[in-house]
Amino acid sequence: MSKSYYAIIDVGSNTMRLVIYLREKGGRLREIENVKAVARLRNHLKKDNRLSDEGIRTLLTTLTSFKEVAQSYQLEEMVCVATATIRQASNQEEITEKVSEHTGFDMRILSEHEEAYYGYLAVVNSTPLTEGITVDIGGGSTEVTYFKDRELVESHSFPFGALTLQQDFFKKELPTDDEMSNLRQYLIEQFNTLPWLQKRKVPLIGIGGGARNLVQIDQNLKEYPLAGLHQYKMKDSDLSFVKNYLFTLPMKKLQKVEGLSKDRADIILPATEVFHSLYDVSQSSGFILSRKGLRDGVFYEQLTRGMGTHLFPNVLEESIQELVTDYDLSVKQINHVQHLSNELFHQLHEKGIGGLRKKDWQEVKRASYVFNLGDYIDSEASSQHTFYLLANRTIDGLMHMERLRLALLASFKNKTLFKQFLHPYKKWFLKDERKKLRMLGALLKFCYCLDSTRRQTVEDLELAVDGDDLNMTLYCKGEWMPEEYQAEKQKKHLEKCLKKSINLSFVEK
């Protein structure tokens, strides 16, 4: 089966990027190549808004280089888009003609609304958020949107970016106290011109390189143990701490900060102040990074052509299905184990055993899709592989804590391994939460044992309480000896969590 590759070139004011995507079996796009060039085209925009000859040469040289890289792939589609600097250039017609002549690219100049829209589209198609404010600060413009119920409500493009703010407010590479204060006052005034930004009390979602660097710095300062940036959440105090930390550093040390790209060292402070000021104006409930941005939004639009909507119906379901496909999991087994888990969970809940809540079922159900997924790599160490893969792989639709909880449930084998996996994150959970997760993992593990041969032999179960004993009747078709052996062997984990003995009776249905 031939592979389908897609490419996009993003001509920004600060950086230019070529990204190559591979379309997965499940239909989603996976980034496999990302080539960046710090062109800083904004610096080549003259006072009359004409892009200088040197700027055009830089643009063409970079695009030619990108073209050579892209030619090593058999592309289904190539898209080239440009944002603020080219949009604001008075000689944009000349620029697009030269790009076409030298590279053959039909460079599409995005309007302010399109640039904001694609950022919004990327966020709602790759996160669980149904309401929020997006902010994408480039070199020469800053796009903000407000969406509710996943629908775009408002959008705006401010004519300032990290580069222009640095040039307009800082006399030297690094700002003084007064310059930072003046910048903050200016930004708050600008954001307050839009009533729909004020006091929203919803998540603020950062898009682009500045937001990405900010999160990387925060994670490094905290020695954050989970991998991945997408859907990482910061609080107001985190933004303030990182901003103040960066402000104290001389340029040489700033360029060596872990997580900060050297080429962004001189513009990270204006970018951080944009996020912090907007956070305060909107009285945000948290700052969340979306690694998916304008480029992804463009392709989400392409992928959903003919669907009647550009929104994926359920982001998390799409991601889970992607995992099921990637790791060749049995849908038939998943559905059967879900049925047995559902029966056991709700009978325990109805009898008031285990302190289960109805919402706990959603976590069990989610984990049932990917339980023991690491067996795909190595059956002997499948629990370790399952935990590592799920805890450290970006799963669109799951925040970091939700992803960790999923990994703990889906990798459950025994108490010892559970505690080992949990150890680096122990402080993230209350004692009762840890106990609950262990019990849910044990419940799911037990139900998988009831289908150990993948024949769906155990069709149903019934639970009865007799003092400190749980009598479980399992209704079967065909020979159930392998399932009985595994269930008797593994029930001890659930018994310890429930503090009850479990007596199993296998009977013919």
UniProtKB/TrEMBL annotation:
It comes from Halobacillus alkaliphilus. Belongs to the GppA/Ppx family. CDD domains: ASKHA_NBD_HpPPX-GppA-like (cd24052). The keyword Amino-acid biosynthesis does not apply. Keywords: Hydrolase. Residues 24-304 form the Ppx/GppA phosphatase N-terminal domain. It catalyses: [phosphate](n) + H2O = [phosphate](n-1) + phosphate + H(+). Pfam families: Ppx-GppA (PF02541), Ppx-GppA_III (PF21447). It comes from the Bacteria. Its EC number is 3.6.1.11. One of its GO terms (biological process) is regulation of transcription by RNA polymerase II. Gene3D superfamilies: 3.30.420.40, Exopolyphosphatase. Domain 2, Hypothetical protein af1432. This is exopolyphosphatase. Residues 317-482 form the Ppx/GppA phosphatase C-terminal domain. GO terms for molecular function: exopolyphosphatase activity.
